[in-house]
Each structure stands twice: as C-alpha cells, then as structure tokens.
Design a protein that fits this description.
alpha/beta; Rossmann fold; four-stranded antiparallel β-sheet; 11 helices; binds adenosine-5'-diphosphate; binds magnesium ion
Length: 309
C-alpha cells in the first residue's frame, strides 16, 4: 500500500532570500500519529500548505495516499481533512450553517446526522446555533477540526492545533487527537511545543530551517538524543571558578550553568542511578558543599532547544 503521506525532496522558495524548505523527504504510514515539531519559521505551515494544495512547491513532489497533489489535487485530497493555521469562518454563520455549507460542497451523505455527531465530538453541541463571531479561539479551533472530520477522512492534517489556546482548550484538543488516534486515523500534527507532541505522537519529525533533522519514534529519539539529564544543585558557599572547572571536566557532564553563586544547573549524560551518585561524589570531591540535589529527569526541552539553535 502507498504511504498516507510521501514527500520527495520538497523545496519551497518564497523569494531570492527566503528558502523555506530545503528538499525535505519523508513517508508517513497509515495509522501513524506523527508530530511535525519545529520552532516558528521552521517550515511547518509551508509543508502543510503544499500538502493540502494551497501553494505549489518550487521543486519536489508530494503524494497523499499515493496520489500526486500537483497532478491530481482533487483525488489526492479526497480522503484528507485538514486545518491550516488558525481557521477562519464566516462570523455571521453558526456551526450548523458552516458545516452544512461545507458538507454540501463535499457531498457528505446524511449530512444533518453527521453534523450532530461532529458537534458532539468537538464539544460544540451547546453552541450549534450560535454565530461563530462570538466564539473563542479554542472554539474556532474545535470547529476547524470538526470541519476537517466532516467527510470522515482517513488522513487528518492539523497545523498547530493548540496554538493560542488556554490550558483547557489544549487539553480538549489533545483528547480529541487521542480519540481520533484510537479510531485508527492517520494524523500529521505540527507544533512548536515538544510537550504537546510528546503527549500524542508515536513518531516525531523534527524540522528546523527548512530541513528535517530527525524522524523516528518518540522512544527511539529519546534513546538517541534525549539521554541527557539535568540536576539543580544548591550549595552552602558560593562556588569558586576552580570548583566549577572541576565539575565541568567530569566525564558525564555536558554543561554547567551557574545560575547564581550558590546554584548550579548541571546537564549530564547517563541513565542510571550510579551516574547520579558519581556526579554527587564528584561535587563532594571538588569541595562543593551540596545542600540540595534535585534531578530534573530527562532534559528533553533543553536538548530540543539545542538541536534547533
Ligand atoms: N507567504 C510567504 N512569503 C514569504 N515568506 C514566507 C511566506 N510564508 C512563510 N514564509 C517564510 O518561510 C519560512 C517558513 O515559514 P512557515 O512555513 O510559516 O514556518 P512555521 O509554520 O514552521 O512557523 C519563514 O521564514 C517564513 O517567514
Ligand atoms: Mg506555522
């Protein structure tokens, strides 16, 4: 079977100066939930806009369910639902109006029943007849996801579905994604937040400056890149330069930041308790009077930040 999404050396140049995508290639199999992770300006929306036929690539190919989006846009998008950037709706229409209008365009069968089902799924049933103009960003985002699901597509593409949402809105979107995942949908979800991706995705494609830096399962990436740990150390006396150097020169230590005279942030590599003990002993050997030693677990966020520098 053809993969759900296939990108081949996709390149997008907006202008002489702006090369947004530098030939990215990847494949997403059916049933996978893939997070497309990268900072602002990385090229996520550009990729998704090409995938959904909103803009054309400068070079390269994009296939959805084996169909070339450039040669066969209608067919390529027939089994795809998407929300690109923050969805906009006619403010004077209600969710029911909006979904009716979109459903008719897409030829959705048994539309009224389907709309009821969708509004329940995205928790907008109590707002079915309220004009969208008065909706919060989270409600619009949910309606956006609702419209993407209207024709029950197998592949769902969401561009930063949690951006601009409050914690409650983010949790609702996350639950919705987990539910779609359980239903066996293929999901491709962009985000600039590692934490968001970690909660839902099985695989992560890390993009920065128009290039894919890594593409693997969350577990494999964790083993490969995210074995670095962090510990916050408080000391009784200010740490001297010589002591700082002694810590920095320890084998497992990657980086030391002196937050103030008596607090150190130490990033180190290694998974076992033994390693933590060695680090602690190293601190004692350097004559540092440790009053507090608080490990932070995997420093995922900082490794991600480092990778995208
Ligand atoms: N319409 C456009 N015209 C010119 N440059 C653009 C346009 N859209 C995006 N860009 C640039 O392309 C790069 C990638 O943008 P984008 O795909 O929106 O990134 P992301 O969605 O990851 O934040 C950025 O440098 C951005 O400024
Ligand atoms: Mg974007």
């Amino acid at each position: 079977m053809e993969p759900a999404i296939k990108l081949e050396s996709l390149t997008k140049r907006y202008s002489f100066k702006i090369l947004a995508l530098r030939g990215i290639s990847m494949e997403i199999e059916h049933g996978a939930c893939v997070g497309f992770l990268g900072p602002n300006g990385a090229g996520k929306s550009t990729t998704i806009k090409i995938l959904t036929g909103l803009i054309r690539p400068t070079d390269g190919k994009a296939y959805l369910n084996g169909k070339d989006i450039l040669l066969n846009k209608k067919e390529a998008l027939s089994d795809v639902g998407c929300v690109v950037e923050t969805p906009d709706f006619y403010t004077y229409l209600t969710p029911v109006d909006t979904l009716t209008y979109l459903g008719k365009i897409r030829g959705v069968d048994d539309l009224d029943a389907r709309i009821e089902e969708i509004l329940k799924l995205v928790k907008l049933e109590d707002w079915a007849d309220t004009r969208v103009g008065s909706f919060s960003k989270g409600m619009k985002q949910r309606l956006g996801i609702g419209q993407a699901l209207l024709h029950d597509p197998r592949l769902i593409i969401l561009d930063e579905p949690s951006s601009g949402l409050d914690p409650k809105g983010m949790a609702e979107v996350r639950d919705l994604i987990l539910r779609l995942k359980k239903e066996g949908k293929t999901l491709f979800i962009s985000s600039h937040m590692l934490s968001e991706i970690q909660q839902t995705a099985d695989k992560v494609a890390l993009i920065n400056k128009g290039e894919i830096l890594a593409y693997d399962t969350v577990d494999a990436l964790g083993k490969k890149y995210f074995t670095v740990r962090e510990v916050t150390v408080e000391t009784a006396d200010p740490v001297r330069d010589a002591q700082l150097h002694a810590v920095e020169s320890m084998a497992m230590v990657r980086a030391v930041t002196a937050e103030n005279g008596t607090r150190l942030l130490i990033r180190f590599e290694g998974e076992c308790d033994e390693c933590r003990y060695d680090l602690l002993r190293g601190l004692f050997d350097a004559g540092i009077k440790v009053t507090s030693f608080v490990p932070k677990g995997l420093a995922l966020e900082s490794v991600y930040m480092e990778m995208i520098k």
